[in-house]
Amino acid sequence: MVLLRSYRSAEWPGWFEAAGTPCPPVTGPVLDSSIALAQLAAEGAGVALLPVAMFARQIAEGRLVQPFGTMVSAGRYYLTWHSDRPQTNAMARFRQWVISECARAT
Predict the structure, then answer these.
(1) Residues 5-40: tens digit of each pLDDT
(2) Residue 31 lies in a domain
(3) Would you state the pLDDT for residue 106?
């Protein structure tokens, strides 16, 4: 299978290590978007490592398949804004929504 890659070069080696099997040569295309990786995988162009929570609907609908239970952490996301701009009411509400959704998901 073609291993679709993100810009995080250690993802596939890390996954294979967690699965307890040697990592084959990783030579598939590199994309900078989980959505693009998921689309290519759904179209049969290869296998992708994706955040399960982000694609739960596509998995439930059968458009994507999670064939193994092995999962690895791919890092974290950060909410940022320019320090020279005051935080608006909309920004504060969005920040609070993100925090509450993350707390609800764990």
Answers:
(1) 998 889 999 999 999 999 999 998 999 999 999 999
(2) yes
(3) 65
* Structural domain containing residue 51: 1-75
Q: Residue 69 domain-assigned?
A: yes
> 15 and 39 in contact (C-beta within 8 Å)?
no
CATH code of 13's domain: 3.40.190.10
Q: pLDDT tens, 36-69?
A: 999 999 999 999 999 888 899 999 999 999 999 8
Give the count of alpha carbons within 13 A of 94, CB side only: 8
Asked if residue 27 lies in contact with residue 50, where contact means CB atoms within 8 angstroms, the answer is no
Q: Which one, of 32, 43, 35, lies nearest residue 2 by Cα?
A: 43
String of DSSP letters for 37-93: HHHHHHTTS-B----GGGGHHHHHTTSS------------------TTSPPPHHHHH
